[in-house]
Amino acid sequence: MRECSNQTGQTNKTQYAARANSTAFNPSQPMKKSITTLALLALASGGFAFVTSAADSVAGKWKGQFDSQIGLQKYTFEFKVDGDKLTGKAVGEREMGTNEVQITEGKISTNGISFVEPLKFDDNEIRIEYTGKVSGDEIKLHRKVGDFAEEDFVVKRVKDADAKPETKPEAKPAAKP
Q1: Which residues lie below 8 Å from residue 133, measured CB to CB, with a gap of 6+?
Q2: Hey, what domains does the chain have and what are their CATH numbers?
Q3: What is the Cα–Cα distance from 36 to 104, expressed in whole angstroms?
Q4: 119-to-4, 35, 37, 92, 152 alpha-carbon distances in Å
Q5: 2, 20, 26, 59: which has the highest count of C-beta atoms within 10 A?
């Protein structure tokens, strides 16, 4: 430690030590700010990357089915993604027939997905609200049908091979000699 003298000419080691530890010049301070800034950027980028990867993983065709108060229902969802917005259509098959509607209010977030299926039943509009968690090729959905019913079910991604109809080779008559 370097000695310094005060106005009376006396050497004062503690006075110099106090000045050396003051906040006037602290070389570690800029480093702390840089580390904090980098950490915040990494967190923000990670959240954005999750939304982006969730968006990438949700786009496409999904199928599932469940039993309800009105019988077995089979659903096909075709999701499209634009940023954090989820659009597409829902096709529901049940004993009473098939309906196809455009989904509304679709959102993608770090918590999962949500959307509304506006269903017209007879002369009534029924709001069916969905929330879901994406996990690989499955989405666990919770479905709330107005104030009438709630169901939980899983939809699975339709892979390209699953989407193509089965075709059987045509039988060709044997060639006659």
Answers
A1: 112, 139, 140
A2: 57-159 (2.40.128.20)
A3: 40
A4: 85, 52, 48, 10, 18
A5: 59
